[in-house]
Amino acid sequence: MQYPEYRARRLRRTEALRRLTRETHLRVDDFIYPLFVVPGKDVRKPIPSMPGIHNFSIDQAVLEAKRAYDAGIPGVILFGIPDKKDAVGSEAWDDRGIVQRAIRDIKRAVPELTVIADACFCEYTDHGHCGVLVEGAVDNDDTLENLARAALSYAKAGVDVVAPSGMMDGFVGVTRESLDEEGYTDVAIMAYSAKYASGYYGPFRDAAQSSPSFGDRRAYQMDPANVREAMREVSLDVDEGADIIMVKPALAYLDVIAHVRDEHDLPVAAYNVSGEYAMLKAAGERGWIDYDRVLIETLTGMKRAGADIIISYHALEAAALLAKK
Ligand code: PBG
Ligand code: ZN
User: Fold this and answer.
1) The CATH classification of domain 24-323, taken from the options 3.40.30.10, 3.20.20.70, 3.30.420.40, 2.30.30.30
2) Positions marked catalytic
3) pLDDT exceeds 90 at position 23
């Protein structure tokens, strides 16, 4: 019997050969670690649906940010849970608000760590929607006015990157304009460009207390079935001045990441969301999967699809695993 001339197995024979021919490299430099900041002091409250992830008071968030920096992780993204919520989410643009104070304290303690502020209103509104309600629906342009205020206030606090996440039309342009007008031309924008109306956000909404009190987010977040529309969304954000474009969630949208990577040259971020984290944790805890192995495989898949940056609750454990190798 004639054997094939090319034998793919030749290069798989030893670990050294596999290392030499590996196409994708997951690195600690790839990660952004999310932090949930709550009022109070010495608070480190576990989130039941996200084992290993906590709500932190600012002092504890500073310690966790230091831990991330010491592990080699280049950035954190902050989500704030305010003391009091109201109809428009006004603490989001309060210069003494929870995220503004966290930005100041983290930048003071770990100046070299990139601090990113998620800019949305669902954690700040008493109804849990991502903006101002007019006749029961989120009003796009009213919400943009508040986004401009919030972005500016994060910039004043010393943030490196603002990440508008509410999926309002024009949200990148308004953020850029607001920052530039006041001279914050060096503050970058990471746009949640293709953010889908996803069931995978469930655990996050427990962590951030941001579930909508009625209805859902399908009138502003994207339909999971659409990819051409995602490309339009990304193009708009690029034209409006985004510095980093994001696809969210990651795992069920790897094709979207690949398309975006193919058609754009800006850095692409993938958001490995709360529900993806919870699934791996749950299966790992039951002993149904080899958790460490599946974790690295999953994150490598996002990288292989084309992500330059991975926002992940796994960032700290992934950093530890990568350091061990
Ligand atoms: C807020 C926001 C959400 C996430 C990030 N920013 C939730 C949502 O849209 O309900 C989800 C993150 C996650 O699930 O890990 N707009
Ligand atoms: Zn929101």
Assistant:
1) 3.20.20.70
2) 195, 248
3) yes
